[in-house]
Amino acid sequence: MIAVMRLSSGLLLWALFAAFATTMSAAPASTAKRAIVLDVNGAIGPAMADYVVRELKDADPDEVGLVVLRMNTPGGLDTSMRQIIAAILASPVPVATFVAPGGARAASAGTYIAYASAIAAMAPGTNIGAATPVQLGGGSLFGGGSEQKQQGKNAQPEDTETRKIINDAVAYIRSLATLNNRNADWAADAVRSAVSVPASEALSLHVIEVIANDVPDLLKQIDGKTVTVNGKPQRLATAGLAVVNVPQDWRTELLGFITNPDVAFILMLVGVYGIILEFFNPGAVAPGLVGTISILVALYALAFIPINYAGVALVIVGIGLMIAEIHIGAFGALGVGGIAAFVIGAFLMFPARAAGFAPSAGIVIGAAIASAALILLVLAALLRSRKRPVVTGGEALIGAQGEAVSWDGEQGLVRVAGEIWRARAEAPLLAGTHIKVLKRDGLVLRVEAI
User: Which domains does the chain have, with CATH numbers?
Assistant: First the structure.
């Protein structure tokens, strides 16, 4: 009897231990008290990647129960997207991508990030998809301005390089779909055929798990779901989490400001003009200092932005021609060519398909107009200078006034423009007499008394 009781007690303890171990493996720490919300609003670039990656690394699973990426993006850079996805997959805290508010989208790079997240959710009136990569400036961009033509599921691009990029992207998003048990076939279609679906259809296709009105509604709906976090199953306990918005800090805002195409373009112009002015005015210091700093910051920003280097070369050639016009005075020939090269290069420099990574037309046109105005002002000054009397050399002495220093007969010495000259006059002059220069014969001045 005692042996049976001991055996029953052992089995009971073993069952309790097994239940406890199962609960611990599928449930988060009970001390998690908040859900942090990161706003991924705009193109996925270096600044956005820095913001998301740093916040995911700083998220303590003992304090944070969920990280919500509230997303509205047209796409972004492949390198930045992969940095965010790597941080999501390595995070010990579950991540939910929530396409919100109404009217938002998770296009291209946003689709990949949603597929990498433990929870994919959308608000009513949003859409997801169009994940075809575009090759720009030696790197891939997820999200272009031009619409992709609908091809069949089995259609293959004719270009070998494009085919490699598409196939790599398909394999990548399929692996993310398998990891989180989502529709891999639709994901492949989103890459190959650029398909996009609204929230209701995404839910029925098992592209997302939840349609929620806001973050609190999302937390209620996903409470109790079991997801994969850092390769392990984890049951979410989100119903009681406090929602905390974590805005971008000054570092992220500064990086975002610098990598803005408009700012990078202006910094490049300031840098080039500053260095050129320093060469033409050695010792001015300020133009060279400002130009050097501006060009270095611009080069740092352009390293993250897809650009066409032929466009950059045309912009620099255009500036060079405009500067040559100012110093040579070709009466507009070089200036017009410089402005044309500048404008064409500026539009070619940033490909039009790079959504979120091209400068506004107003900035380019404004810079061209400012450069043209500078050339016109310099040319006007050159034309006015041609009509002025000569103020240097021997001709500058004609009409100049001075005074007689000493005189003997028909010749003597006079002081003109602070210098002593030999002079001749038709009548003798007394020392101190004010004179005017009539003519110059070599080193002898013809003068008369005033």
Answer: 25-248 (3.90.226.10), 253-387 (no CATH), 394-449 (2.40.50.140)
